[in-house]
Every structure is written in structure tokens, then in C-alpha cells.
Amino acid sequence: MDLSGWATIIYDLLLFTGMALIYISEAIILTLIPRRYRAKSIKGEVALITGGAGGIGRLIAIKLAKLGARIIIWDINRDGLENTVQEIRRNGGKCWGYYCDITSREEVYRLAKTVQIEVGSVTLLINNAGYVYGKTLWELPDVEIERTYKVNILSHYWITKAFVRDMMKNNHGHIVTVASVAGLLGTYNCTDYSATKFAAIGYHESLFTELKAHGYDGIHATLVCPYFINTGMFYGVRPRLISMLEPEYVAEEVVSGILVNQVIIVLPGSVRYLLPLKSLLPAKLCWALMYHIIRGPQSMMMFKGREEMPILKNNNNVTLIPQKAM
User: Fold this and answer.
1) Is 178 exposed, middle or buried (0-12, 13-18, 19+ CB in 10 A)?
2) Which residues are tagged catalytic?
3) Is the peptide bond before 268 cis (omega within 30 degrees of 0)?
4) How far is CA 157 from CA 149, 199, 239, in A?
5) Which of 51, 37, 103 shows the shortest CA–CA distance to 80?
6) Is this prediction's pTM over 0.70?
7) What is the pLDDT of residue 316?
8) How close are the terminal C-alpha atoms of the chain, in Å?
């Protein structure tokens, strides 16, 4: 390597060191400042939430509407769509609901054009819809493997491509990918689900890199990796050390993260400290930890799915429909 090559390397190292000092200091300072004092306004933003008819998608939609965003919901649950749209409108919010099977690329592109005409350009995109079948590899029907991939990862491509160019034109927008802790650590009964969530994380991080590399600093990206959520999607699972997360808590954390442009949200936060063990511990010891202490495989062996979840009613005798995947 010639002298100019070494000079370039030294310059890049010094630049990186300076940036490291600045960004670490920034992170420390922002940690000390309460979120409410650094939250951005989303009033007037057009927010599209997939799977917004139930579960955390519905709660996120309601919370964003209260903050002044115009809400668009895509789902295949017609009753849930109507109920959520009407609830938001009754509370003074603006909301539009569209029946959309996000496994169909053609339907996604068609509805995206409809949304742009009837509502406007989407500036806040939340890829939230998810699907899980919950069987071992040898029990998984081929059609269910394909459906899991279409819902959990392939749909992200069609949906994001449909709206990201408008964000790029104005260098303004926010893309949220709801993945899972199962996308950071594979587990029992999840060869299809975990694989798609690993893929969603890779997709999101690559998209983030592409936007940054091309100077689109006005388009923010937030990756959400929650543990099991008590929505019915993982009905029957009984975790040992970490309780299932409540939907209200997850939705609040997601919305708060959006408002401060948080890059990654892992819920609960304690899971962050367990993840490095995957790389640091010997493989056999990591398995022993998962099987004998955390008992992740045993928890997923009790998986029943939303089909076996009892239909509940709230205090107003309104049927609570378990969250359905799209």
C-alpha cells in the first residue's frame, strides 16, 4: 500500500474516532433527557399500519391518531377494521380502513395507488402484520411455510417499495419494522417464523444502510423486536423467566420510540443482556441455558394458537376478536 493509501486509512480512523465521541456523548445526553422533551410532532403525518384491526396494531393506530396523525389501516379482519376506524373517528381522529391481503403483491400495489389518491402520500409506514403457525419443521405444511414468508417478510418489500419513493422525493418519512426477539434467537416450533423474523431484521438494517448511504437522513427507521405479546398470537405459551408482554405496554413503547426516532427497540430491555451470550458461550452451554434455565423450547411446546383462544367480551359486552395475522 502506498503512502496515500495509508493516509486515507489514518484519516478515516480519526474521523471515526471523532464521530464515536460525538455519538456516544449524544446517546448519554439523550438518555438523561425525558422522552417527552425530545419528541417530534406527527400531527398531519399519514400513517399506514398493517394488521391495524387488532392487537398492538390497533393500539398503535389509536395512539397515533390521538397525536394528530391521519391513520390508514390495512387488514383482512373486516369487523376489526370497521370497529377500529369508527373508534378513532368517534374520538375525533381521522382514519381510513382498507381490506388488504398483503400476501398479494398486485393487491398491495393497487391499494397503494388508491391510498395515495384518496388520502395522500404515506409518511409513516408501520409493517406490523405477522403470522405464525407453530409446528416443528416435519409437521409444517408447505402452504403454511409459504404463507408465513409472504406475510412476515415478502410483504415488507412490496409495501415499502410502494411508498418509499414519495418519502425519498421529500427526504421525509419514517419506516417501522415490527420483527421479534425470535428474529434474534431461533426457538422451538418456529423454523418458519424465526427465519422470517431474522429476514425482517436483515431487510430493515439493509434498508436503513441504503437510505443513509444515499443521503436520505430525513427518512428515519425503527426496528422493533418484542418478546411474546399477550394478543392471542402465541396463545398457550407459558414463558418461565420473562412474562408475556401486555399489548398496551408494547404499543406505548413503539409510539414513544417513533416520536424520538429510536433506531431499535428490544422489549423487554433486559433481553438485550441475554443476546450476547449466544455468541460468547459454548454452543452446548447456550443450549443448556435455553433448555434447562430459560426453558424456551418447553414454553413453545404448549403453543395452541389463536384458533383455540376463547372469545372474550369486554365490560360493554363487545366481542374481543383475537388478533389475526394478515
Assistant:
1) buried
2) 193
3) yes
4) 12, 11, 32
5) 51
6) yes
7) 40
8) 54
